[in-house]
Amino acid sequence: MDDNKERRDQKSRYVLKRLKGGEIRFRKRGELFCPFCGKILQKDIRSLIQHATGVGLSTSGKHRPATKAKHAAYGLFLQNYVLPGLFPVNAPAAGPHAPGPV
Q: Cys-Cys link to 71, which of 34, 55, 58, 59 (CB 3.0-4.6 A)?
C-alpha cells in the first residue's frame, strides 16, 4: 500500500473517531458547517456531504493530503451518522466544547 494513502487513511480514522466523540464541532448555531474550512452550505446536508467527499476524493494538487483525509472522514460522518439522524443537527453540541450545566 502506498505510504501516503496509508497515512491519509490513518488520519481519516482519527478524525472520524474525534467527530463521533464530539471533540470536533460540526454545528454552529444549529447549522451544519465544515469544521476544516468553515463553509456553511445553507442548511443543506447533501451539499455539505458533496463538498466534504469532493475535497476528500480530489486528485488535484490543490489540497494537502491531511486536508483530503479530514474532509473524507467528515463526508463519511455526515453520510453515516448525521443524515440517518444519529447526530441530530438541531441538538445542543455534545462533547468537551458544549456548555456545561447552568
A: 55
